[in-house]
Amino acid sequence: MRYISTRGAAPTLDFRGATLAGLASDGGLYVPEAWPTLSRDEIAGLANLSYVDTAVAVMAPFVGDTLTRDELRGLCEQAYGRFAHAAVTPLKQLDHDQWLLELFHGPTLAFKDVALQLLGLLFERFLTGDNEGSLTIVGATSGDTGSAAIDAVAGRAGIDIFMLHPAGRVSEVQRRQMTTVRAPNVHNIAIRGDFDTAQALVKAMFNDAGFSRRFRLSAVNSINWARLMAQVVYYFYAAVRLGAPEREVAFSVPTGNFGDVFAGYVAAKMGLPVARLVVATNVNDILHRALSAGDYSSATVVPTATPSMDIQVSSNFERLLFDLGGRDGVALAGQMGGFEASRAMRLTNAQHEGAATHLTSASVDADGMAMAMRWAQEHANEVIDPHTAIALAAARRQTLNVPTVTLATAHPAKFPEAVERATGMSARLPKRVGDLFEREEAFDTLDATFAAVSDYIAARATPRS
């Protein structure tokens, strides 16, 4: 398995190289040179497997010869052994055709744990015996990526992590899960700006020749292919339990940076019978406008009760546009360059029509979110977080006539105020993180400028050997 950049000018890498690189050197994102496929018999054979064995079967083609199956299984056993539910990502039924896939049983109570617990172990494995020096992870978070990434790499030798979050725009639980981790290799940065600004600063550091030569940079955001690869697994795990490959299954995904829903697209390309992927956005609806009208134009970010979706530039959308546009890296580089200059772009006919074969979309406002939270509590006795509610509202608007799985991406206790406003219910943190509010915080607040952030990192990171 080889990996190529969506912008066509970066070196082709193996799985190890793509994992450690994160962002491609030409500013693009790594994707497999070709999509591996599983036969109907192979998909049917997943039905009785554990989550770990499902993960090995689904991810092995992407890993290639960089790890043996036994090595991959060992990493998966270690990663998912920390989850609080034996099924890792259990399914719950809401009514005759609506289901929840609970992705929040990891150590930081969010779906990001499914990928990042594994990614931290992959970094450690690939750095063993490496002579290129320490790894400097630079990431931006709208809430959950930061805490999950920090938990995954805190205290690991040869790794420093610098995580940017928009000051005042993540929930208190999300912030504390990052800022109370007291490990010498963990550095939290609150920037005076929004998530899109934080994400742009991260990309600028990767693309700055001097900075990237000085430090060995890598990414934990969903720009890192290994993260998306790990997320493909739970689409297969859920679908086979609902009848795949004999029956199609639809998924509704709360969407900000497009990574989680792109993992579903990958599952479909691998042969999983996905009837439809519902791209659920809040009022920051750039993806809904792009998919429904072909208009990928950035607007001002509106702060909402779903901060992980308060995004107007969805990095992983580039991967979809590349795949639907004939995998023409030169053409996509020009298209993305135009967007980065003007913050506006029209999808080509091939991209718009190709997306419609797999994806539909919906934008859900605060009232729709609250109504979905109340419906889940009153009709199914389920308390859900606001992001999950956005996706459930979008799912219930569809007429798909197949089992529809809403991805429950965060524990409701991460957003207690929003839950209580909508349902009157108090969502409590699980005992394993119950002392969160007693821990001391540590973070630095910086201006949202390249100079301020890059100077801060340069003063603390370990340069290349």
From TrEMBL:
Domain Tryptophan synthase beta chain-like PALP stretches: 89-347
PANTHER family assigned to the protein according to its UniProt record, in alphabetical order: THREONINE SYNTHASE FAMILY MEMBER (PTHR42690), THREONINE SYNTHASE-LIKE 2 (PTHR42690:SF1)
GO molecular function terms noted in the UniProt entry: pyridoxal phosphate binding; threonine synthase activity
Superkingdom: Bacteria
Taxonomic placement: Bacteria, Pseudomonadati, Pseudomonadota, Alphaproteobacteria, Sphingomonadales
Residues with N6-(pyridoxal phosphate)lysine modification: 112
Cofactors that this protein relies on: pyridoxal 5'-phosphate
Keywords, comma-separated and alphabetical: Amino-acid biosynthesis, Lyase, Pyridoxal phosphate, Threonine biosynthesis
Keyword match Endoplasmic reticulum: no
Record's signal peptide: none
Enzyme Commission designation: 4.2.3.1
Enzyme superclass (EC): lyase
The protein's name in its UniProt record: Threonine synthase
Reaction(s) the record says it catalyses: O-phospho-L-homoserine + H2O = L-threonine + phosphate
Organism of origin: Sphingomonas dokdonensis
InterPro entries: Ser/Thr_deHydtase_PyrdxlP-BS, Thr_synth_N, Thr_synth_N_sf, Thr_synthase-like, Threonine_Synthase, TrpB-like_PALP, TrpB-like_PALP_sf
Family per record: Belongs to the threonine synthase family.
Boundaries of every Threonine synthase N-terminal domain copy: 2-80
Gene Ontology BP annotations: threonine biosynthetic process
Pathway note: Amino-acid biosynthesis; L-threonine biosynthesis; L-threonine from L-aspartate: step 5/5
CDD domains: Thr-synth_2 (cd01560)
